[in-house]
Amino acid sequence: MILNYIWISLILLAVLMGVIQAVCYGNIDIFSAILNSSFDSAKTGFELSIGLTGVLSLWMGIMKIGEQAGAVQSLGRAINPFFSRIFPDIPKGHPVFGSMLMNIAANMLGLDNAATPMGLKAMGELQELNSDKSKASNAMIMFVVLGASGLTLIPTTIMAYRAQLGAANPADVFLPILIATYMATLVGLVSVCIAQKIRLKDPVVLGTLVGLTALVGLLVWGASVLAPHTLSVVSAAAAALILLGVICWFIIRAMAKRINVYDAFIDGAKGGFQTAIGIIPYLIAILVAVGMFRASGAMGLLEQGIAWCFAACGINPDLAGAVPTALMKPLSGSGARGLMLEAMTTHGADSLVGRLCCILQGTTDTTFYVLAVYFGSVNIKDTRHAVACSLLADLAGVITAFAIAPIFFG
């Protein structure tokens, strides 16, 4: 529903802006420019989707190997001691722990198709434990906020889009996304703990948070002291080594379990093809609306206004082009994706704005979509502090993304 209003507004505002330019400035050609932009954007959306098929099939094939090899389950077992502390109301050994761990582990590995069914299953099990069936329980809120914060270790789709749009190194946003998405998750987690009076001083909770934060802080410090060229080389090499390490881990585990690795890859790759084809209408819809909005001059005025505000506050005005993506992300995942692609197409995949939009896209999940689907699946009416904590996590992710993008790519 929200995306419906956004889509309509972009098109009508583009036409209104065209009328203003024609009446006030005599620019009659603006209408042809807006119309041609819609055709060009539709063509771009189709070409992007088709071109995405190969890279997306590759990564979804690799992810299927990891899924069948039990990588998701292993990650779930690793974070189980921590989870038992932040979900104190759930009885020890309850089956819902398995569903929640599988959901979050699948999200971290970019297995969206596996994550959503497990998430809905977990919400159903949490509802069974819930004493007030119309009000979100503490455990539900913690689970949904962690999901909305979108902690992702491997931003598969974003790297695939960057490759399609000609980025010199599609994986160079890997570390910045990891830092930003961690900060969003950390703020969301801590805010829920404070609201629910969960003991942050528990040795396991405190040790986990301190250790992970120290690691992220070390990454930021290393990025700040290295020369831009050296940082680019180191970041690219680190991202490549991590991703290759994950691939090798998946394959070795699969071999140890006597899984047919090739067949698993083919099975996953088929899903990648179907995914790429399935997003064509959605991608065309948002790119056409955004393209018309930009062709009318409205997007330029918006970016100029934001750039002026940034400059007045001492912030690099070049970052203003990423603000629409940041504002759209909590409302619509497909809308934010369209703005990210439009920014990379307009400014370049390796531009500061293009890379920042990629970081923003990978930082958090679509907050209102996650809240609506998860709470709606169990008919929860009163979500209590879930929305506030989720939006706080979004804000933390956005601030982090804007802060670290110039460090890595400025």
Category from helices, strands and their pairing: mainly alpha
H/I helix tally: 18
- Residue ranges: pLDDT <50 for 5 or more in a row? none
Beta-strand percent range: under 5%
Strand tally: 0
Q: Termini, distance in Å?
A: 37 Å
Principal-axes geometry comes out as globular
Major sheet: size, sense and barrel closure? none
Give the integer mean of the pLDDT values: 83
Radius of gyration: 22 Å
Succession of helices and strands: HHHHHHHHHHHHHHHHHH
Helix share, percent? over 70%
Q: Could you provide a short overview of the structure?
A:
This protein has 410 residues and is mainly α.
Give the SSE map.
Blueprint lengths: L1 H24 L4 H40 L1 H16 L9 H13 L3 H18 L8 H12 L6 H9 L9 H23 L6 H23 L2 H29 L4 H18 L1 H16 L2 H15 L10 H6 L4 H15 L4 H12 L3 H10 L9 H24 L1
Features:
single chain; 410 residues; mainly alpha; 18 helices
Structure description:
The chain has 410 residues and is an all-alpha fold. It has a domain at 52-278 and 363-409. Helices cover 79% and strands 0% of the residues. It is built from 18 helices and no strands. It has helices at residues 2-25, 30-69, 71-86, 96-108, 112-129, 138-149, 156-164, 174-196, 203-225, 228-256, 261-278, 280-295, 298-312, 323-328, 333-347, 352-363, 367-376, 386-409. Helix 1 (2-25) runs parallel beside helix 12 (280-295) and helix 8 packs parallel to helix 16. The longest helix is centred in the first third of the chain and has 40 residues, at 30-69. The chain is globular. It starts with a helix and ends with a helix.
